[in-house]
Amino acid sequence: MKGTWFAAVRGYVWIKLIGGNPETFLNAATAQRIGLWNIAFSKDGELTFGISVPDFFRLRPLVRQCGSKARILAKRGVPFQLARLSRRKTFAAGMLVFVSLLFLLSTFVWQVRIGGDTAIPEEQILRAAREEGLFPFQWSLRLQDSSVLARRLTARLPDASWVGVEKKGTMIVITVVDSTKPDAKSAKGPQDLVAKMDAVVTRIIAENGKPQVERHDRVRSGQVLVSGWLGDADRRKAVVSKGKVMGLVWHEMRIVSPLVREQKTLTGASKERTYWVIGSRALQIAGYGGEEYAESRTGAALYPWRLGRWMLPLGILKEREMEVLTTRDSLTAAQAKEAGLRQARTELLSRCGTDARITSENILHEQSESGKVRLTVLYEVEQSIAVERPIIQTPSE
Question: Which residues pair with 382 in a beta bridge?
Fold first, then answer.
């Protein structure tokens, strides 16, 4: 019972029992269902314990019965705090005014912050927010619903595809997502299409320009595939060569795949704690209790209070603890090998481009040691091998 909210509200005292028979007292208290806690004997054999205020007034007959005397060591809890405050009326009035003022200040918007990666100027967003009533020192009770504000801000910002408005304590966070626009293509000058790596040509489609290679030709890095020069030696014209050239390219990959897979996942269970921050100190005001997680991940966000441009040494800290579950799976050598090959294929295709495909896979070396499977694999991939290279013309050309 010690330290609980219930005991603090009711009030409790620490008692020392002097003289008499402590054992008889404990038996009588148990029979009368009087709650005692933190029962201990001092070096002198005197009994100390904690007891709630209502049960304290039931002790007198029991103390007399065992021939002892009860001495109060300390008084704790709300009733005694109120009694002390009643003797210090000025302090109590100041505390009441402080709490009232603090509550009043918390009903105002102290900061408007822009979130998200947006190219829209911050001044434009803040100006639109002010027109909708979102600005510092605005009374938060006068604000409309967040969804309504978000919809109206989206209408005022034509370059935004989505706007979110979230109230975090005394701060308003406006998140803006820009609308996607097609990239403005700059005018290209004359260029060739050249090979970016050694390969064997499998397919060539020249939309503009003159092809310099054919299917099944072996090309080297930097070799011209589609020339931007049209005409003969006497009458030539440089154009922008366009097209698609596919070729077979060989990639050697070294793969290490463990026989034991460890994976961390969030179970979905979480706990939130709220702190009142004063300077460099934090006082927890919510989120007590709950079972402790064997493994967890914690994130925190601080929301400081501002007075105009000045940041006050006050704020709210919200902490979220999420339960993490670690699972370990044992794989056979064949399973680890297949998992490694599967991951290698995914990485290779993402590196070679969306139009790439693996045409063959040859395992050059395979070894199992130290809880891992090591592989050396040669992949044959059909992929785009053409890159653009500008044509530098001399004045005579």
Answer: 248, 357
